[in-house]
Specification:
The protein has 210 residues and is an alpha/beta fold. It is built from six helices and twelve strands. Strands 3-4-5-2-1-10-11-6-9 form a nine-stranded mixed sheet. A three-stranded antiparallel sheet has the order 8-7-12.
């Protein structure tokens, strides 16, 4: 199953078994069978880009990977990488940034010639001012869409890694519109009901559950 955030709403691309049964629509959800025409995805994109009335939309078919390829054909793809950084000195504390009125995790575009992990480490250090980090396990991938300055549809793949770092004075990267960089206890942060992007919230909740 694929989970792609569009204007804050998750779009799931799944098999029928993963989708849980037959098509239906209610006030909060849409579950629909994929008719096999990639242009059908444009209807869902237009709808989700214009409003946030639904909690989720699920499109299912025989092959979720093919659904994703058909969906992605409408986008320019950008690959990024980032880190969930744990404080070496205080158990349970993670490093968060605040930008564009949302809490987030440090991340950025992968440069040519970089590995995903190398890009994740570089971006974490650039965006937070940390002098060094210790890269760890691969956490997974998230997907979200947006429009660029030329109004092109972008699908961003972000690869995430666990990391560790010592507490030091942080210097949030102003040119990336980062207002704050803070160490916060992960559970207390999530319990506080923060304004956080859906893909980031899902990643943090999954990490806390583990």
């Amino acid at each position: 199953m694929y989970k792609i955030y569009i204007n804050g709403t998750p779009l799931f691309l799944a098999t029928q078994e993963e989708a849980g049964g037959a098509p239906y629509v209610d006030d909060t959800k849409i579950v629909a069978r994929y008719p096999g025409n990639p242009r059908q995805f444009l209807n869902y994109l237009d709808m989700l880009e214009k409003n946030t009335r639904f909690d989720s939309v699920t499109v299912y078919g025989d092959d979720a990977h093919q659904l994703f390829r058909d969906f992605a054909s409408h986008f320019r793809i950008i690959e990024a990488a980032g880190g969930l950084v744990y404080n070496k000195e205080v158990e349970g504390e993670v490093l968060l940034i605040f930008k564009r009125d949302h809490w987030d995790l440090p991340k950025g575009k992968i440069d040519e010639g970089e590995s995903r992990q190398e890009a994740a480490v570089r971006e974490v250090m650039e965006e937070t001012g940390l002098s060094s980090v210790e890269p760890g396990d691969y956490l997974g991938i998230t997907y979200h869409t947006y429009r660029d300055k030329k109004n092109r549809r972008i699908l961003k793949y972000t690869y995430w890694y666990r990391m560790k770092a010592a507490r030091e004075i942080l210097a949030p990267q102003a040119e990336e519109e980062i207002e704050h960089a803070e160490w916060r206890p992960l559970k207390a942060f999530l319990d506080s009901g923060p304004v956080v992007y859906g893909n980031i919230k899902g990643l943090l909740e999954k990490e806390l559950a583990n």
